[in-house]
Amino acid sequence: MATIESQSKLPTPPPSQAGSGAHANLNIVAPSANDPRPSFSPSAAPSTPPFSPSSTTPVLSKDRPSQDSSTPTDLDFVGNVSVTNDVPTTADLTAADKLLVLDAKGQSRPFGEIYRGTNHADDHSQHGSQMTIAPRQLVIFIRHFFCGNCQEYLREISSSVTPEELLALETPTFITVIGCGRPDLIEMYAETTNCPFPIYADPTGKLYDVLGMTRTLDLGKKPKYIQSNILVTSMQSVVQALKTGSNALKGGSFKQVGGEFLFEDGECVWVHRMRNTRDHTEMEQLRIKLGLVGEKKQVMRNKWSHGVKKVASEEDKEKEKKPASTRRRSMSWKSLGKGGRDKEKEKEGLMGEVVKEEA
């Protein structure tokens, strides 16, 4: 079948795209009616090549974050984040009520039971009974279970406030601690901090998000409850994590920060959300908020040094109890020298004669 050849010219490109001013002529073969190949219409060709200075083709920016995004990841690494201390809304508390936390044995219970002081059906422990009779509940949200800063904070609380003291207040109060790691580490954390209060785990972090707590790695200003150097604290956290073996990666998110929530008769009456990794409420402010009066107990630090002193003092006492002759015999003959050895022999000989005469 015969084909009809025709010549046509494409539209002239803009001056910015023209070479040396010469226009290219392209030969286009018009297909026949029975040709299955797609046809090309010169009129359908764009008048301006894409991505030219005069082109209207939209160009997406590369790696540009959304300005309208308000997800928690946008707050990572931004330093001392700006958060409010507003109490959670009714909708937020309703959502938090149903979220589960886990105890050291892996048993779950709704968060609503904790801040309402409702004892779980399977909880027959002393903590469960104390929680039931306390209409006011202070819930402390910590960071990951290896955080040395939060561990110092719990040691401060444990040494200055007892459950009996809280229950004896005009409004009986109880404390609960919640971390963002796995429940496998709760026993280790309780032993490390000497915490007498119940500890739970929220490994999903959903409770933190619903209650408005955020994420950051900024240290912030050093608070009073931290008495050790940041380098020492960091090294202790690393060593502590390594000692747990397979649980080293179960401590929780390093970027998650917590806060303190005070509930009374099932309603949230006071909130403090952390703005950095060392922003827990100072103990003095917390005692005033709870209605505790009087001086707080002095926190004992560096228990290992006290143990060394105790052992050393006991050894000194044992030395004082030893008779003088025993101490002389324990001395090295080499250290006495020749003259010293002769004198020691003379003293022993004289003592032997005295004993014979007395006999």
Number of strands: 9
- Most strands sheet: 5 strands, mixed
- Domain tally: 3
CATH topology of the largest domain: Glutaredoxin
**Rounded mean pLDDT score:** 74
CATH architectural label of the largest domain: 3-Layer(aba) Sandwich
Q: Please give the CATH class of the largest domain.
A: Alpha Beta
The CATH superfamily of the largest domain is known as Glutaredoxin
pLDDT under 50 segments (min length 5)? Answer: 1-8, 18-24, 50-55, 57-78, 298-313, 325-336
- Biggest sheet strand order reads 7-6-5-8-9
Assign an overall shape.
globular
Helix content: 25-40%
Tally of alpha and pi helices? 12
| SSE order, one letter for each helix or strand | EEHEEHHEHHEHEHHEEHHHH
**What is the end-to-end distance?**
149 Å
Structural class: alpha/beta
The Cα radius of gyration reads: 39 Å
Oligomer: single chain
Proportion of beta-strand residues:
5-15%
Structural descriptors:
Glutaredoxin; 12 helices; five-stranded mixed sheet; disordered N terminus; 35% helix; globular; single chain; 9 strands; two-stranded antiparallel sheet; alpha/beta; 359 residues
Topology summary:
Elements: E1 5-7, E2 27-29, H1 90-97, E3 100-102, E4 108-110, H2 111-115, H3 126-132, E5 136-141, H4 148-160, H5 163-167, E6 173-179, H6 186-193, E7 199-201, H7 206-210, H8 230-243, E8 259-264, E9 267-273, H9 283-290, H10 303-321, H11 324-329, H12 333-358
Parallel strand pairs: 5-6, 6-7
Antiparallel strand pairs: 1-2, 3-4, 5-8, 8-9
